[in-house]
Design a protein that fits this description.
- The structure is a single chain.
- Helix content is 48%, strand content 5%.
- β2 and β3 form a beta hairpin.
- The chain is globular, with a radius of gyration of 18 Å.
- The relative contact order is 0.26.
- The protein is mostly helical.
- Strands 1-4 form a two-stranded antiparallel ribbon.
Length: 242
């Protein structure tokens, strides 16, 4: 899935809608995606609370807010919505940070330009670009290390930090941060014994892909990364249109 840290599995926090039902929600695709993100957020909050002694995630820690990463078309739309909803001063700061970030990217990948679609650069070249910019701050960060568009942050930002385990497939979905040391590097057996870290990844991803198909087309749902972009591009797009 786009956004380099995959989502999770178990327990079911709400009744799943079928892909067919989601596909019929053409107009409210973004609101439906917000509801999906709320589910992810609920899982993270519960999992973090269950392992509070081992988790450093919270305001003041921005360790996972550095480095280049991809976001889906749905996430890009959500980010743009957050930029448009921000006050004038915040929008100006976001636009300036995004412009600086894109200038850095352009120095390393001069052939890549607006609309900054990953497929236009190529996934392998994008991966190399990510490797070259491991410490680049997210353009949504303010000077204190807080997110200026926190309520509109993408999926990967809502899930990164804790290990995620799919008990239905016995799959370790990744996502653990080294700063949460006691939870970092746990094997499948250890994760299986921690039910708070279980989440229905397969169903979650099916819902996400169904919404992507509605929002960006079947090709984007089948292979999301080439249709994705980066946070700076999503911010710039909204700032220019404002």
């Amino acid at each position: 899935m786009v956004g380099r840290v995959p989502p999770p599995r178990q327990p079911r926090l709400r009744r799943r809608r079928s892909a067919a039902t989601l596909a019929g929600m053409r107009s409210p695709a973004l609101p439906a995606y917000r509801a999906l993100l709320e589910e992810a957020g609920t899982w993270f909050e519960r999992a973090a609370a269950a392992h509070a002694a081992d988790v450093r995630c919270g305001r003041g820690c921005d360790a996972c807010c550095h480095g280049l990463f991809d976001v889906s078309p749905l996430d890009a739309a959500l980010i743009a919505e957050g930029v448009r909803a921000a006050g004038a001063e915040t929008r100006a700061a976001l636009a300036a940070s995004a412009a600086q970030a894109l200038a850095t990217v352009a120095e390393l990948a001069p052939q890549w330009r607006t609309p900054w679609r990953i497929g236009d650069l190529g996934v392998e070249r994008f991966d190399a670009l990510c490797d070259a910019l491991p410490d680049a701050p997210c353009p949504a960060l303010d000077d204190a290390g807080a997110c200026r568009i926190y309520a509109h942050r993408p999926l990967v930002c809502r899930l990164h930090g804790l290990p995620m385990f799919d008990p239905g497939t016995s799959r370790d979905c990744g996502g653990a941060c080294p700063l949460n040391a006691p939870l970092f590097g746990l094997d499948a057996d250890a994760l299986r014994a921690r039910p708070a870290l279980h989440f229905d990844h397969a169903a979650f991803e099916a819902d996400e892909r169904a919404l992507l198909a509605v929002f960006a087309g079947p090709a984007a749902a089948a292979d999301p990364e080439p249709f994705g972009t980066i946070v700076a591009a999503a911010i710039q797009s909204a700032a220019v249109r404002k």
